[in-house]
Each structure stands twice: as C-alpha cells, then as structure tokens.
Amino acid sequence: MSDTIHICASSNCDCGMSRRDFLRMSALTGAGLASQMLFAGDAMAQRFKGDDQPVKIGYLPITDAAPLLVAHGRKLFEAQGLKTEAPRLFRSWAQIIEAFVAGQVNVIHLLSPATLWVRYGSKFPAKVVAWNHVNGSGLTVLNDINSVAELGGKTVAIPFWYSIHNILLQKLLTANKLTVVTKARGADIKPNEVNLIVLAPAEMVSALATKSIAGYIVAEPFNAAAETAGIGKILRFSGDVWKNHACCVTFLAERDLNDKPEWSQRVTNAIVNAQLWSRSNQVETAKLMSSSGENRYTPHQLQNLTKVLAVTDYSSYEKRGIIAHPAWKQRRIDFQPFPFASYTEELVRAIGQTRVEGDTRFLTGLDPKFVAKDLVDDRFVRKSIAAAGGPAAFGLPADLMRTETVAV
Taking the model in full, what pTM does it have? Predict the structure, then answer.
C-alpha cells in the first residue's frame, strides 16, 4: 500500500487510489480527452479490415476474466478464424479503461456500473455485448467480525466507486442503519459510520492482514485467498444479495460493432463458447487461469481458484448459515452470457441511490429503459447463444426474460 496517497475527487477522501490512476480518471472526464483518445484508437483500428484485426484482450487477474482467458487459452478465437495477441494484465480499473479508450486493447471485461461511467460520464462510444459471469464476489472481514452491524466505526475497501460491490455493500450497510462516509486517514469514524476507501483488488488481502481495513468486498479469488490464509472470513456473498447479478461484462468499442460486425460476432461466439465450457469444467478452468497454468494468466494459486469455481463449494456455506437465501440454489460463481435488460434498468436505479465519489451529474439524467437499450447491444450474443445450444444450455429461460431479485 506504499504507492497510495491521500487524493480523490473529494477533498476529505482517503480512497487509496494512486495519483496516476486518479489523474487518468479525472482526465477522461474533462476537456474531452476521451474524444481525443478515440481518434487515436480509430486510427489504430483502421489499420485492419474485417477479421484481420487481432483480438487484444485487457483484463484484471480475477475470476471475472475467465471467459476471455479461457477463450484465449483454448484457442476459441482461432476456431472462429480470428487472430489474437497475448492478453494484457492490468492492475487497476483505471488502467484498463485508459488502454481501452486509447485502442491499445479492444476486448475487455469491465465492472457493469463502470460501463455507465465510460459511455455516459466520459462519453466514449462503447457497448456491453455480453455478461462475463454471474455472482463471483463476496464481503470478506476480519475473523472477529460476525455481522454487518459490527463494521460500524471501521474502514472497508471497495475496488471501484462504479462497481456492483459498492452498490451491494451500501445496501447492506443501510439495512443495518450504518452511514457511509469517506474520511481522511486518521480521522475519527463514528460508531454508526463505515469509512469506504478504494483499493486495487491485489492490495486488499495484505491490507486486511495488517488490519488497516476491517474488510473488503471484491471479486474472487481474493475472498478465497483470505480464507485460505486464515486472515479473514466470508460474511456475505454478493449473489446472496442480488440473485445471479452480473459483476463484469464484455465491453467492445462501438466502432468495432458498427464497422466490423462479423469480427464482433466471432469474438462474442468465442466468449460464449468459453462460458459454456467453463460451466462444466470448473477445475480445468481453475488450472488454466492459475499461476501454475501454461500461460500463467493470473498470480493465483490453484487451490484458491478451485475453491471458487468448484460446484460443491457453495453448499458448505449454506450448512454454516452464511447463506441468507439457500432457496436461490446458486453457485459461488457461474457463467452465462445474456445481458438481461431488467438488470441494466435496476442497475441504473441502484447506482443513483449509491454514494459515488467524483462528478456524478451525468447519472441524474439517465433513464433506466433508455440505458438498457442504448448501453447494451445483444444482437451478437443472441446468435452466439442459439449456436451454442440455446438458452437452456446456460440454465436460462427460453424467452431470455427475468425479474430482478434483491434482498439484503
């Protein structure tokens, strides 16, 4: 944590975001820098015509990236007639967004609420083409904390202000009559307050180990890593608050969707096929992503990845009473690609009720139904799902419709 400093969009926030990341995010929302970078990205994209454009993946080392990495590792992009480059690992969401806007990468996974910020906050033309997975995140706390209420007076880390983690954590805190604050390091935190900071996922386990934070909510396998190391425990799974919610989604630039529709279709086909394979090959998926895998996509131990991806793992938490909604019968993480409009609509409403640092004026004018149609392009994923065996192959309803279930 030595590379973090006290700097944020708020004058009294100790968010743990590095100066470089903060400047990157601020620049993209000001002075039209995203538009300037778009031209650079356009020039890079136009070097290639049609399917000649290589797939350039950008990812964070979390299980949310599994479909992209499985598609690369199993050569599913090549099976679609596409060329690929070695995936690029990034350490923060700010870095991956900047690289995407600049055209350095063209296929990324991104936090679903962050796509709102990119398209409407920074005005960069990109769209969600598929979900990467459902669930796959958790609230991990120190071992002596046994309830959400006990987080009062303490500091909890989130990976990004525009994240499903921030939304769900604040729902849990509000339900327990706790107030979210963002205070400078060393400031007094009242018993009814919870101080939120932003930390890169890779920094969270060590921060918990040193007890500089009382907990964090983040994607796997960082929750499993704390469990395995004995420094923390799961207090709640995100999917036990919002049933089968999306966390990360596949995000493509609109220029590729419009100018290279066949390329976009083949990219989506590969990602959907990767999800279908991952659903029934959990241990193999863990091996492929692990530090001992051939490509060493992530620095994570096979033990932690297997703990997350194994089908039977979630049931043990039900037996210990950690699961509030056992009737939902969910996996700790699962894979299905369809971007339900009902989720996007609820997401827009939820982020509007969530404390988010920085300039949030763009959120006030967002209409949920408009965003569900404008942010998401499901033309390609519908064809991919049909070719992969139809909705039933992913446990989805035939009409690809659902009602959102949120219960803290």
Answer: 0.90
